Amino acid sequence: QVQLVESGGGLVQPGGSLRLSCTASTSMFTILVASWYRQAPGKQRREWVALVNPGGSTDYADSVKGRFTISRDNTKNAVYLQMNSLTPEDTAVYYCNAGLQFSNTSYEATYDYWGQGTQVTVSL
Smallest Cα–Cα separation from 3: which of 29, 34, 21, 39? Predict the structure, then answer.
């Protein structure tokens, strides 16, 4: 069964940087459109952060524009989120969400998947 696997979270001081990664657990599925979301402590809803299309075009939430960069490496079937100039307000669990396409000679389908989340804490 395919999974989205996230990594790269951790503890960083204000002004620091982190790079999150998101990969599919099997090469049988291809990442199509992918987004990063985050859920801050005490918040019930996940906040959309950034999106990258299969062709590489991107979009960002206003709160991270100019500080975060989403990218993809189709050869590695991976999506990344480079986070710079981090502030305590960026503290959250970050989730990868992607459309995963399975395709063979007789069947093609796309499924929506979420990763398990990775904790990002920005603090002194």
Answer: 29
